[in-house]
Amino acid sequence: MSSLSPREKLLARALLSDYPSAALGTSSDFGRAANVSAATVVRFARSLGYGGFSELQAGLVAELSERAASPVSQYGESTDRRTGSRHWFDDAVAVTVGEAARSLEAIPKADIDAAVALLSDPKRRVCVLGGRYSGFIARYLAFHLQQVRPGVSTLDDAMNTGSSLAIDARRRDVAVIFDLRRYQSSTVEAAVALSAKGTTIICVTDEWLSPVADVATVTLTTSVASVGPFDSAAAAFVLAELLVDGVLQSLGQKALRRMEKWEQSSGEDVLT
User: Fold this and answer.
1) Which among 17, 180, 242, 251 has most CB atoms closer than 10 A?
2) 158 confidence band (pLDDT: 50, 70, 90)
3) Is residue 29 a contact partner of residue 73, using CB atoms and an 8 Å limit?
4) Distance between CA 166 and CA 195 in Å, rounded?
5) pLDDT, average across residues 246-254
6) Which percentage of the chain shows pLDDT scores above 70?
7) What is the largest CA-CA distance in the chain?
């Protein structure tokens, strides 16, 4: 975004506000949506690394297919990604670690700071939730946040219905919602219901963007790339740990005192 011209930024915002449909019509329609010329649309596409608007559209169509990819549909491609020149484990480590690092380093620091600020605000309750597979990362984040600040809860997938969440939601609440490809309707419904109540949404998703991002104040994207047919949650998992570290640094001694109390209350359950 920072590398785009002011008029190109208008197109970028129009695309993100209705992604990817905004750019799947004609270049004139896309330009009108952002109140810019068709020529600016072409320059915008080239600024993103495409040869022109039609190439950008082809990329968006291909992305739609990738967005709905399943382990079964990815199985053939996953075998092609293996080099065959070294042990499969080396390939897996290189791709998983490399892609996780790349995606985490690409998250704008302003977005990280915004997320940490929201999670560190003692006046805000925090709710964390995810879907069938991303729910375990949500629970991991919630468990660690509970050790450094009060007012943190997590919801299992079975409770991810808009009506049940909206009952207790408050305007100053923060919800961290994990939704990775393939996106889950109940998780999206929960996000919409919480947003309607004024809850601030932090969305952790992948590069194809869960529909939860449409109602999120902060969206943090992570890579799900792997050499196998199953998407990797490694980057999202590391991001959860880094967010906890950011909150800990933000709260300082308050968090340390809470951690000490937590240790005292659970010490008898730890083997020494």
Assistant:
1) 180
2) very low
3) no
4) 9
5) 96
6) 86
7) 69
Say which residue the tokens 């109540």 belong to. 197
**CB within 8 A of 189, min separation 6: which ones?**
160, 161, 162
